[in-house]
Design brief:
Layout: H1 2-14, H2 17-35, H3 41-48, H4 57-82, H5 91-102, H6 106-140, H7 144-160, H8 166-181, E1 183-184, E2 191-192, H9 206-224, H10 243-265, H11 272-285, H12 298-320, H13 327-338, H14 347-350, H15 352-383, H16 388-407, H17 410-428, H18 434-456, H19 468-493, E3 502-504, E4 510-512, H20 544-547
Antiparallel strand pairs: 1-2, 3-4
Helix pairs in contact: 1-15, 2-4, 2-15, 3-4, 3-9, 3-13, 4-5, 4-6, 4-12, 4-13, 4-15, 5-6, 5-12, 6-10, 6-12, 6-15, 7-8, 7-18, 7-19, 8-18, 9-16, 9-17, 10-11, 10-12, 11-12, 13-18, 16-17
């Protein structure tokens, strides 16, 4: 009942005219940013961090939350109309959503995505209200060793599951930890990694680093691959759903929510895994499995619900433990630091008005997003026609202006350029961005808990694991690190049987025989065949005609 009363007081704060205006601005900006391909909510929040310096913290975080949820909504529009996911979490939506759009059902695809996001976001926020205070009570009982162990687990988990190479992931994490060390040692006052530059004594501003890595790095990356040809956008009317569409969508919305929230609350859980699990589940449970791959509405409803429920789940560890589980949460955590607010278990006691107003604004923002997305879908489609050179030139301008506004020093612009080039290089060579950002945010805090643990134990190394929870967490971290190696050794000692080879029959089709690494079969075990050239025996991808897909 106490949580309910606090939530009501949060609604009283969030429903003031000025905060409602900020919530509206946030969801509008977030949706617009989510619609534009290649620009995610993390970049939007990073760009707006300098703008909010003069704002009251509660209003600023209400706007940030609107941007976060709005970015999740808007990403589905790009996936459905362009087959270009703006965020990795909307990749699954593009599979069925774009097929629906090509067959003339873009309106229904956008509607089920918007309504499913509203349902999942509302339920996810209600779960946040229920579970965040419980997590806080648990976290307050933790000592420094246990808190350090949880931070180490978060760093390792985020790093171990991202990217194609764990080595690149840990290299990215090392860069983030190194950037976090720049400045003066908080205990001894010794200068670290400043290279004789007095302006680095106070360390690198988190806002400048976030803007450089996300905005400048992404803009340079896009510029290196820029195509000046206009994007083909499928026209769409006002989204609506028929009776049959509602019947086929409401269960996937609920199942997607059940998948999304727990994964969002886990370190490195993210939204990618639950969206994939939701898609697979809907394909197995659907009464129309033949439509999957050709535009099944369940394949849009479930993953979109999972995506937005994961967004609500992400805020649970961020507010209760101070642990970000994705890039946007990491940037929002930087915003807390910018305002001198320490996120974590004591946040609910030290800043209850801010926390509960932020949570209440999520309910308000969800409703605003539904009201905005349904009537304005045609306008968002037109926004996709904006030339990319103009778009990214504007991003670079605002990034430069924002970085300069932090300290009004030209030196920050040099840092912005250097770290922007670092962000570009990381994208070029496949290094994940998230471990760097989370290492930068959590590194100094983990260092503080490490020193506190050693001080409490008189310098004895065993003080790092002298609490039962710390031992359990370190065991989980060890499993995360060792399990992939065990699987690799298992597969090496138990090789798979040889696959079939291609052989050509008299009709010019590819028949499957032993030893073919490219042979494919469907779920029934039937072998896929495709014509090949008489002159050259090379494999090539199947075309839409050969797959028999609907090209409408």
């Amino acid at each position: 009942m106490d949580s309910f009363n606090l939530l009501m007081s949060g609604f009283a704060t969030a429903a003031t005219p000025m905060n409602l205006l900020y919530a509206f601005i946030g969801v509008l900006l977030g949706t617009a940013v989510g619609v534009l391909p290649g620009i995610g909510p993390a970049m939007a929040v990073a760009l707006l961090l300098p703008v909010t310096y003069g704002m009251e913290p509660t209003s600023a975080f209400i706007m940030f939350a609107g941007i976060y949820y709005g970015g999740m909504y808007g990403g589905s529009t790009t996936s459905i109309l362009l087959n270009t996911p703006g965020e990795s979490s909307t990749v699954i939506t593009a599979i069925e959503g774009h097929k629906m759009a090509k067959s003339g059902r873009a309106a229904q695809a956008l509607a089920t995505a918007a309504i499913g996001s509203f349902v999942a976001g509302t339920i996810g926020t209600a779960l946040l209200v229920a579970f965040a205070p419980l997590v806080v009570k648990f976290a307050v009982s933790l000592g420094a060793p246990s808190y350090l162990a949880i931070m180490v687990l978060a760093l390792l988990a985020v790093t171990a599951v991202l990217g194609s190479s764990k080595l690149r992931g840990f290299a990215s994490l090392g860069l983030g930890l190194a950037i976090g060390l720049v400045g003066m040692d908080p205990v001894t006052g010794q200068q670290r990694l400043i290279f004789g530059l007095p302006l680095l004594v106070d360390g690198l501003d988190i806002v400048v680093v976030a803007v450089a890595i996300f905005a400048v790095g992404e803009a340079l990356w896009i510029a290196a691959h820029l195509r000046r040809t206009a994007m083909h956008v499928i026209p769409v009317g006002r989204p609506w759903m028929g009776k049959q569409d509602w019947k086929r969508s409401w269960k996937p919305w609920l199942r997607g929510t059940a998948f999304g929230f727990p994964f969002g609350a886990l370190p490195a859980g993210g939204a990618e895994i639950p969206t994939f699990l939701s898609y697979v589940t809907e394909k197995k449970l659907s009464k129309h499995p033949e439509e999957f791959g050709h535009g099944a509405i369940e394949g849009v409803a479930g993953p979109e619900a999972a995506n937005n429920a994961a967004a609500a789940g992400t805020l649970t560890p961020m507010l209760a433990l101070g642990l970000p589980t994705n890039a946007t949460a990491a940037v929002m955590l930087a915003a807390f630091v910018q305002y001198g607010i320490q996120p974590g278990p004591l946040l609910f006691e030290s800043e209850p008005q801010l926390v509960w107003a932020l949570i209440a604004s999520l309910f308000i923002g969800n409703t605003l997003l539904l009201l905005i997305n349904l009537p304005l879908a045609p306008m968002w489609a037109k926004l996709l026609r904006l030339p990319r050179p103009y778009l990214y030139a504007g991003i670079l301008f605002f990034a430069t202006l924002g970085a300069y506004a932090v300290n009004l020093q030209a030196f920050d612009l040099m840092i912005l350029l250097v770290l922007g080039l670092l962000g570009f290089a990381m994208r070029r060579f496949g290094y994940p961005i998230l471990p760097l950002v989370i290492g930068l945010i959590l590194g100094p805090r983990a260092e503080g808990q490490l020193r506190k643990s050693l001080q409490l134990s008189g310098g004895d190394i065993s003080g790092l694991w002298n609490e039962p929870i710390a031992v359990v967490v370190y065991a989980i971290a060890a499993v995360i690190l060792v399990w992939p190696l065990v699987l690799k050794l298992w597969h090496r000692s138990h090789p798979k049987p040889l696959l079939p080879v291609l052989s050509e029959d008299s009709t010019g089709s590819v028949a499957v025989g032993p030893r073919d690494p490219a042979g494919q079969s469907d779920e029934s075990g039937a072998v896929a065949t495709a014509p090949v050239s008489r002159g050259r025996r090379t494999a090539r991808p199947f075309t839409d005609d050969e797959r028999g897909e609907d090209k409408a």
